[in-house]
Amino acid sequence: MYGTVARLQLKAGAESQMDQLMRGYDALKIPGYVTTYVYRMDADPRTYYMAVVFDSKASYVANARDPQQDARYQQMRALLESDPEWHDGEIVSAGA
Asked: 4, 88 in Cβ contact below 8 A?
């Protein structure tokens, strides 16, 4: 499996919009997509971490290059103070 972990800093008041946007992803049928986890930090409720899982690096890269994914990213980016910090990599361990 392969994916990314991102640190997101939301604009003030954007929390409910982000929640709606993330819920909309559940209905998408993206090839190779497995799941997304989104965390809101206790220390700062506008700081989120997002972990996205794909079945392979090839599926992840294909999605990243898809213009529809860029459109979804632009919707999310409009809710953020700055560009996300992306950390891509192979998933080497996952609990059941």
From this structure: yes
